[in-house]
Specification:
Layout: H1 2-26, H2 33-63, H3 70-79, H4 85-103, H5 107-135
Helix pairs in contact: 1-2, 1-5, 2-3, 2-4, 2-5, 3-4, 4-5
């Protein structure tokens, strides 16, 4: 099934993102910090891409709900009862941060997004766990 393949990719991406955050934090204050921070932001971008596509495949296969965009899928995930309003707002903020990171580059923005990523990991892990539990 498409959900299982996406979940495996999602799990791997989450692990690598978490690892990247740890390495970046370990290099805070070093001249290599910006390199690791930027790498972490890239990992965040593709982890979020896999996350929303996992939600999309899950909703279609298990709930019969079709969605086409990242924000639309997140809202449908809320409507189906898998997230609360706070979690949904956080996921929607992630999409906004991803879009900013993809289309704009400023050091201060990169620092801000990196700080957010540390918080976003928790909700991304929760989404992964929710889907994994529902598909077993």
């Amino acid at each position: 099934m498409a959900v299982e393949k996406k979940l495996n990719d999602f799990h791997s991406a989450l692990h690598r993102l978490s690892e990247s955050v740890e390495i970046t934090l370990a290099n805070k204050g070093n001249e290599t910090f910006s390199f690791f921070r930027d790498s972490t932001i890239q990992r965040f971008e593709f982890t979020l891409e896999i996350a929303w596509k996992s939600i999309k495949n899950f909703l279609l296969e298990y709930e019969g709900i079709e969605c086409r965009s990242p924000k639309g899928c997140i809202r449908e995930f809320l409507s189906a009862g898998y997230l609360d309003n706070t979690q949904t707002t956080t996921l929607l903020m992630m999409i906004d941060d991803r879009n900013l990171a993809t289309h704009t580059y400023h050091e201060s923005l990169a620092d801000e997004i990196f700080l957010h990523i540390q918080e976003y990991l928790t909700i991304l892990q929760k989404v992964y766990t929710l889907i994994k539990e529902k598909t077993q």
